[in-house]
Prior knowledge:
The complex is a heterodimer of chains A (113) and B (113). Chain A is an all-beta fold and 113 residues long. Chain A is 0% helix and 59% strand. Chain B has strands at 5-7, 10-13, 19-24, 31-38, 42-50, 53-57, 64-68, 74-78, 87-94, 103-104, 108-112.
Amino acid sequence: TQLLEQSPQFLSIQEGENLTVYCNSSSVFSSLQWYRQEPGEGPVLLVTVVTGGEVKKLKRLTFQFGDARKDSSLHITAAQPGDTGLYLCAGVHSGAGSYQLTFGKGTKLSVIP
Amino acid sequence: DSGVTQTPKHLITATGQRVTLRCSPRSGDLSVYWYQQSLDQGLQFLIQYYNGEERAKGNILERFSAQQFPDLHSELNLSSLELGDSALYFCASSVDRATDTQYFGPGTRLTVL
């Protein structure tokens, strides 16, 4: 069972355009993370959102956590070719000395110069 | 460079065989996590170790096993390999057993022919 649904699956845009990718779940997580993965490399953590309604900014990237802590979005302003990659959201289950991430299947972003 | 190392980078083997993947965590990190990434299932958590002890289990098959050694490096053993085991296997590490930052290695690409 896929607990985290990401959309769109693929996105190809021109440099300078804005975009939003979505991460939706039927489960509540203690927190939610966004990662970027480039070919041949492991995922790299971009941000962790913890509180419902929380908004975090990382340069041109804006992350939002839904009020019910079940969904999240990533908005990129004025996309650059360097933003190209696979964007993954991950729900965090933590407690009792363990820490587990449940990943969505990702959004593959291509930014064309 | 995340500081997590994985060997080998690529592995090609035949069905029915057994392989061992190796992971060295970042210096000072006590927790190690193993993930499998395939095209159809995405990135899936397999198992977590903390300071030599198993802490959490995810979607790990009975044919797979892992351990963490006193020097904190970890090995993932995959046996009776099937075509469907072909995937990228990532190791990640974190400082302790319940922290929000996991650092991923570059992965091992396993191809089962």
